[in-house]
Amino acid sequence: MPAGTGALARCAQQLSPALLACKPLEVGRDTRQAASELRAVAPLVVLREPVELVGPCTIVTNGARTVVVSSAELLRKAPEPLAVALTLDGKKTLRIAQWSMGKIAGVGIAELAEPFPKTGTDLVPLDLSSVSATVDTRGAPSALVWIAKEGSLFVRRAAPVHVDAIDGGGMSDEVLTRLASPDEASDGEAPIEGAPLFSWMPADPVLGRKSEVVLVAIGLPYRQQTFKPRANPAIAELVGVEDLGRALPWEGAVPEGSNELDQVAGEIRDDESGPLAGLDLEPE
Q1: Is the Cα dihedral 7, 143, 141, 161 positive or negative?
Q2: What is the pLDDT of residue 279?
Q3: CA distance 87 to 42
Q4: Mean pLDDT score across all residues of the chain
Q5: Is 188 helix (H, G, I), strand (E, B) or coil?
Q6: What CATH number is attached to the domain comprising 53?
Q7: Which of 47, 80, 89, 225 is 20 to 30 A from 15 in CA distance terms?
Q8: 110, 126, 142: which is the final residue of a domain?
Q9: What's the pLDDT tens digit per position in 98-150?
Q10: Would 87 be classed as within a structural domain?
């Protein structure tokens, strides 16, 4: 084992999310790739012998239900049967039952044919609470995470990127698109179709928010190349993942003492008096 490899591994395990969020450039790409949230990124494969890599996908759960999110175009073009590789050697898979396009253009959401196993996988589904509701990194360090194959194993790769909101050089009052440009020119050819964009958000003491690693968007190849906000050409156009909130509704119970109103149904009556006259209210 090369000198320092063991120390790097121990360091990656011991680094808190706060350090990953606040000092990503100091800890380097290797440590950034060690963030536990990235274990939600999985190989999307075709069930052949051996399994054939299609591209990256992300496993997201609300605790009761688990779905797969990726590029709709990647899912559309892929042969069947499609599956998620549960282990990085591709020997254990979980078939995809069906998929559909989200309301956000470019996003595809797939249903699994069986419940996601709790053990025996190299994946950890990302909790819905770690999904951003907007495509806004707030200037935090970010990376596109994609899947490569080295020999017989799948590996995750993180390409650090700058995210820029494009308004056409001030010609538009609204953001036209958001582009991800690689920090390193060597990542310019990375296969980022369907790759999730993660951001290492720093703590916000004012809002009482801890540092966290969140899924912000899905990357689609930026082929038009109309805009070039950085020295290296942009490799991805970013689309939001708000559709996950519709695919995975909140499953929690209303806490005791909540002021949330229960839904009621009633029918009109004409034999009563008072402020609620005419209503026979019955909880559903």
Answers
A1: positive
A2: 54
A3: 9
A4: 82
A5: helix
A6: 2.40.10.10
A7: 89
A8: 126
A9: 999 988 889 999 999 999 999 999 999 999 999 998 999 989 999 999 999 99
A10: yes
pLDDT value at residue 23 = 40
* 230 and 145 together in one domain: yes
Which residues, in sequence order, are CB contacts of 84 under 8 Å at separation 6+?
Answer: 42, 43, 44, 45, 57, 59, 68, 93, 94, 96, 112, 123
Q: What is the pTM of this model?
A: 0.76
Count of all residues that appear for the chain in the document? 284
Answer yes or no: do 151 and 212 share one domain: yes
Give the phi and the psi of residue 115 in degrees, each rounded to 5: -60, 145
Residue 25 lies in a domain: no
User: How many percent of the chain have pLDDT more than 70?
Assistant: 75
- Domain residues for 65? 36-126
Across the range 37-64, mean pLDDT stands at 95
CATH number where 212 lies = 2.40.10
Tokens of 216: 């912000």
What pLDDT shows up at residue 6? 45
Q: Is 284 a domain residue?
A: no
The more confidently predicted of residues 9 and 170 is 170
- Under the banding of pLDDT at 50, 70 and 90, the label for residue 11 is very low
Give CA–CA dist 35/85, Å, rounded.
20
In the structure, how many helices (H) and strands (E) does the chain have? 5, 15
- If asked whether residues 134 and 240 sit together in one domain, one would say yes
Q: Is 50 a domain residue?
A: yes
Place of tokens 């499953």: 251
Tell me the residue ranges of DSSP E strands in the chain. 41-46, 52-61, 66-71, 82-85, 93-101, 107-112, 126-127, 142-150, 153-166, 177-182, 196-201, 212-221, 236-240, 264-268, 279-283
- Phi and psi for 130 in degrees, rounded to 5? -100, 20
Does residue 177 share a domain with residue 137? yes
* Whether residues 105 and 140 fall in one domain: no
